[in-house]
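Below is how a single chain appears once it has passed through the pipeline. First comes the sequence as given, then the structure the pipeline wrote out for it. We keep one example in the README because the format questions we get most often are answered faster by looking than by reading.
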Amino acid sequence: MEIKLSKETALIETVLYLECDPIDEDAISRITGLAKNVVEICLSELSQRCEQEDCGLEITRLGGGVMLAPKKEYWDALKERYGKKNEARLSRAAMETLAIIAYSQPITRNEIEAIRGVSADNMMRILLERSLIKETGKKDIPGHPIQYGTTKEFLRLFRLNSIGDLPKLDKDEAERFELSTEE
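Resulting structure:
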């Protein structure tokens, strides 16, 4: 059975293709000018189309948004060659958050936000869902906040044997990843 997509659904498919990060229905509605209920119907149509055997993509929900991604069975067979392309799909903010974690681990969410200067909630959620970071324990301070570090998936994605293989930071870059001790 072939599913014929509407022009509105094709428009949303194009938006998802062009976006690097998951995008929520409200943002899709603003970008396309379509009502939110129309966006939801179109996403359902697109999801049904992607479920067909002759489609290599699927609609994936990450961080409160949706995105197009390769179907798992195809990705598993192709990730060795195309893994770097998946890396490029991380936004600049996600890459910045990931770099802070990689160079400063173990690190808490509050420490990440202190370095970045903005909330890290969405970026942390995306990185956790992509298994690039994980909880590594709790910091021994009042409240015992969760600490985060990188995963084996992070190492695989960036083709590193260990965290020690990360490029060395120059003095200015290293200072950027340090927490201010001034209160």
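The domain at 90-176 is CATH 1.10.10.10 (Arc Repressor Mutant, subunit A).

See the next section for the split statistics.
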